[in-house]
Amino acid sequence: MLSRTADSLFWMARYMERAENLARLLEVGHRLAITPGETGGNEWLSTVTIAGCGQDFFETHQNATAQTVTDFLGLSEHNSYSIPSCIANARGNGRAVRTALTSSMWESLNGTWLDLETKRREALSGTGVIDYLDWIKDRSMQFTGAITSTMLRSDAYYFTQMGTLLERADNTARILDVKYHVLLPEHEAVGGGLDFYQWNAILRAVTANRAYHYLYRDSLQPWLIAEMLILRSELPRSLVGCLAGVTDCLEKLSNAYGARKDCVRMANALHADLAYGKIEDIFQQGLHEFLTDFLRRNYALADQIQRDYLL
């Protein structure tokens, strides 16, 4: 396969997953904003900070509010970080390698792009923001389903899958890190009512409420939520689950091409640290510090894959 084709497949999947992830991140912000009690109003600042575009945001906006952050990340056509830009970039990459896609993949991707403007205008009217975010998540999951159900298990599939999983791992870490940035007011206790609502919002954002109660059969406990999202391979969106998929794809590419690249070593090292990690050690290190380090290593892994296969 041409590296140019692999690159387009990789980034098509990343951009489509990123659109869903932005929708989930905005949903967290909206849920935290309506939780009982006071969060200090910083749920929107945390949202734009965790999205990694705080500097660009404040070049055009003075304050992080529900409207400004939702417009910037969710609705703007002029912001390269926004959902519409991600959909457009995904469709552009998919169109460049149309013959490498199945008909189901292209119809899902192109249909999302064609319907996006109508949905965006409805959200801009102020009456359908949550519906718009739900629609983005549904379309992204439909596209991911088309990949899983219709692509041959060849190198094209492995590059597409890696793009999805690397972006998903990045998003899970960022959503979990939102809880670190949305600090409890001084009069609120850890484990109190506000803390409960914030952790519940995190679980709902990754659609893991039922999974949590199935795995732990317990009330919401911060360390158990963090353990599930980081270390439990049963959860598809967990960090260890995503990295297991990435390492599997890289191993199969290594066998197919007869060469073991540096990115394989990096992926296996990161996966091993997660697979054999303990939540007690993570909290002792500091959850925020652990997640920051994971995001750095995940970015470095994606960059190394780019160097080894896609340039």
How would you portray this structure in words?
The chain has 311 residues and is mostly helical. It has helices spanning 3-33, 43-50, 54-60, 66-75, 83-96, 103-124, 129-150, 155-181, 193-205, 209-216, 222-231, 239-257, 262-275, 279-285, 287-310. Helix 1 (3-33) packs antiparallel against helix 5.
SSE blueprint:
Blueprint: H1 3-33, H2 43-50, H3 54-60, H4 66-75, H5 83-96, H6 103-124, H7 129-150, H8 155-181, H9 193-205, H10 209-216, H11 222-231, H12 239-257, H13 262-275, H14 279-285, H15 287-310
Helix pairs in contact: 1-2, 1-4, 1-5, 1-7, 1-8, 1-9, 2-8, 5-6, 6-7, 8-9, 8-12, 8-15, 12-13, 13-15
Concise synopsis of the structure shown:
The protein has 311 residues and is mainly alpha-helical.
Features:
single chain; 311 residues; mainly alpha; 15 helices; globular
Helical fraction: over 70%
Strand/helix succession = HHHHHHHHHHHHHHH
Low-confidence stretches: 183-192
C-alpha geometry: globular
The figure for the number of domains is 1
**Alpha plus pi helix count:** 15
Range of strand content: under 5%
Total beta-strand segments? 0
Distance between the ends: 12 Å
Q: Return Rg in Å.
A: 19 Å
Q: Which class of secondary structure composition applies to the elements? A: mainly alpha
Average residue-wise pLDDT: 88
Q: Note the main sheet.
A: none
